[in-house]
Design a protein that fits this description.
Layout: E1 2-13, E2 20-31, E3 35-40, H1 46-54, E4 62-70, E5 73-74, H2 80-86, E6 91-94, H3 98-101, H4 108-118, H5 124-137, H6 143-148, H7 156-168, E7 174-178, H8 186-203, E8 206-210, H9 214-220, E9 223-228, E10 231-237, H10 238-243, H11 248-256, E11 276-286, E12 292-303, E13 308-313, H12 319-326, E14 334-339, E15 342-343, H13 349-358, E16 359-362, H14 366-369, H15 376-386, H16 392-405, H17 422-434, E17 440-444, H18 452-469, E18 472-476, H19 480-486, E19 489-494, E20 497-503, H20 504-509, H21 514-521
Parallel strand pairs: 3-8, 3-9, 6-7, 7-8, 13-18, 13-19, 16-17, 17-18
Antiparallel strand pairs: 1-2, 1-4, 4-5, 9-10, 11-12, 11-14, 14-15, 19-20
Helix pairs in contact: 4-5, 4-7, 11-18, 15-16, 15-17, 16-17
Length: 531
Amino acid sequence: MTLLEVRDLQVAYGSPREPVVAVDGVDLTVARGEVVAVVGESGSGKSTTAHAIIGLLAGTGRVTGGSVAFDGTRLNDLSERAFERIRGARIGFVPQDPTTSLNPVIRIGDQVAEVLRIHGLADRRTARIEAVRILEEAGLDDPALRAKQYPQELSGGQRQRVLIGIALACRPDLVIADEPTSALDVTVQRRILDHLDARIAETGTAVLLITHDLGVAADRADRIVVMQGGRVVETGPAAQVLTDPQHDYTRSLIAAAPGLAEPAVRPALRGTAPILSVSAVSKTFRIDRKSSLRAVREVSFDVPRGGTLALVGESGSGKSTVSRIAIRLETPTAGRVRFDGEDITGLRGSALRALRRRVQIVHQNPYASLDPKLRIRDIVAEPLEAFGIGTRTERAAHVARLLDQVTLSAAHLDRTPAELSGGQRQRVAIARAIALNPDLLVLDEPVSALDVSVQAQILDLLTSLQTELGLSYLFISHDLAVVRQISDTVAVMCAGRVVEYGSTARIFDNPQHEYTHTLLDAIPGKVHHVR
């Protein structure tokens, strides 16, 4: 029985006189208990379609044609008050960006409890108890402690799990999940998706899954809808679409997806001293007067000069904290960090500023790291201006070249971050990071927000820049297929410690630690999921 029916949906942004069409005649259906995955490039209209269905179009976005029906009710005709009774209670929504979707001044437990109270499912006392249970179901470690924390005290993956917990809190009939696992490591990704599968089996909950991860679509979806340029170009059973695609665009998406079967051929590294050495680094964060969190415990590794070290492990394992310590954005509780042979652990003043030019970071969340008020041209030019590089004309030309390198056109120069898709924002962040020609880039989940075709372009770009400029990369990722493609060495982290460390080939072909085996076994897309 059909639960959601979208017919000839049309969505536009901008003024009515000069509309920008984002979705152009989309048809799709979701049956009770069915998982439908919508895949396509960043900017293809996937997220806009999802937002239009649930009535959450941003800015000047508006539905200009077509209809959306949920369980026989035409959503287009509902008042906002009537929509609010359905949204959250009968239709759950998992947004793409966990940082901007959680209130930074309200504790996590209170944000989960609020949903239950709004829809009359719990009172103030029982809502707090239920919130801890929901956080545990969503896969957070020590949920009672996490409930007391604020969003900024959690990792990106942990924040995403909170959003998933909120979406499922009221046991809705339909969950619309916009890239729900893009910030999650493979083990937690599997746990969350297994949880969704269990809910579907128990209650008949349906899922509309927006994703760029074809492995997830292969494992979890009953049907796949492929979008390009605001239109549906192919739809069908998941196995059929992925093994016998009919449209050229679908074939190009599948060809661009990174795989574990054929690792990329990496140039041999020269036997020189490492560009970065982290030695026995530890970090403890104070939660409150009575409790603290040991995020990193005696971590050691080297980043090869002109090569790539990948840090892999579950969300919350300490990967991002270690990377911030490595480039002096955090101070370690213990241990030392050396960059290009110099101890930088206690670096200050002008020496620390000089280091900033040689080391740049691409953050996991591009939206939170880009100034929403600035145009793209100003965002990319910002580091050039900060270090007084070039004239205004020279900087403008350099910015245009940088955007071209990350596959953005000159048409994006005068846009703001809010006018770009998640993948486009990440490309802007990468362009800004390489503007100063640094020696070391710290890449914190740099392609997690990108569809597979753009992901392949960015990885090719990073590889070519490394070859041409001798760049070194500290690459943080939960996507092991990407890690195998780009890395020379791998450090596997679990609960703040490095549990395995070695060459990429050895880690993948002959893993020694049980946790490494667990990570490899959880990789999506190995075998098509059959219900």
